[in-house]
Description:
Elements: H1 12-22, H2 58-70, H3 75-87, H4 91-104, H5 109-121, H6 125-138, H7 143-156, H8 160-173, H9 178-193
Amino acid sequence: MTRDALLLGLSGIFFGLLVGWIIGSQTAAPVPSRVPEAAAVDGAAPAGAPARAPALDEAKVRELTAAAERAPRDASIRRRLGDLYFEAERFDEAIRWYEEAVRLDPRDVEASTALGVSYYYTNQPDRALEQFDRSLAIDPSHARTMLNVGIVRAFGKQDLRGAVAAWERVVAVAPDSPEGRAARQALETLRAAHPGVAGPQGAAPRQGAATSGPPGEAR
């Protein structure tokens, strides 16, 4: 991602407020501080972001790894290991465990979405979007997944129309949720900077519309 992504019009302060919901809020533990490069302004960290990632709980990792070896078909242990690595921003290791978790439990939408976010943070936006499609096939109204679709579309693919479609869908299905409020603020900020992308009001996609591609694109 180049600094040209700043043309998206989403400021560092804005993402400092929203990153906890937009990226990484799929775990109950503190969310990672890392945000898309476009969230920084003149190289400064977003408001409120810690300077470093949380330390990995090595003792817990050893405990859960031993448990995983004893229970080769337990998806929940593998998801917890993925969460530990994710929270420490060690996304390559998180991917390993999340992939095992979704292989064992393909219906775990939270693990699937966490895997997609991990792909994004390892510079694999297309794989991230493919994984989000799998999450939405499990739960078409999963607001957190749709919110992440928007951010990957905006920052990973520089696809503002796709981002608008995803965020409008969040507002349509979960308007009063934290994700819905975050999506609404994202849309307001985006429309202020890029009124041609979506008009002042926008139009929420119809029920059942695809959210991971630009409007009109078959998926």
